[in-house]
Amino acid sequence: MNYSITYITVLLFLILGTPQLKAQNQTGEQQNYVVLSKNIKQLKPILMTADSLAEEDGETYGEFQVVFCGKTVQDIKNNADFKLLLKQAELQNVTVTVCGLSLNAFEVDQKQLPEHLEVVENGILYGFQLKKKGFISLTI
What we know:
Sulphur_relay_DsrE/F-like; Hypothetical Protein Ychn, Chain: A
């Protein structure tokens, strides 16, 4: 009789517990990332990091965004190296944005910016908004 109770208990755990474990594995949350940077020269290592995280996270890899703020926005216009990295970012599905407040502060016309570069009104606020949405954030 003692063995019967043990077998029934184990059988119930297997039957009832297995679907729940499978559901947990299939509904893993997306890992989303945002990097706020004050130096456009950081884009290359940021893209390398995004690539590594995409491989590491597998199916749970979500969005990766980069926001540039500060004086570095002056270095964006007519920068061939940065344009190449933007194309690489696009291939990696990494969104690169620039802070509109910084553009205004350092008198950079949005028309001088390369294609595929998004402008957000306030880069710092945008970073906080993404963090509130669950993005893992890093400021460099």
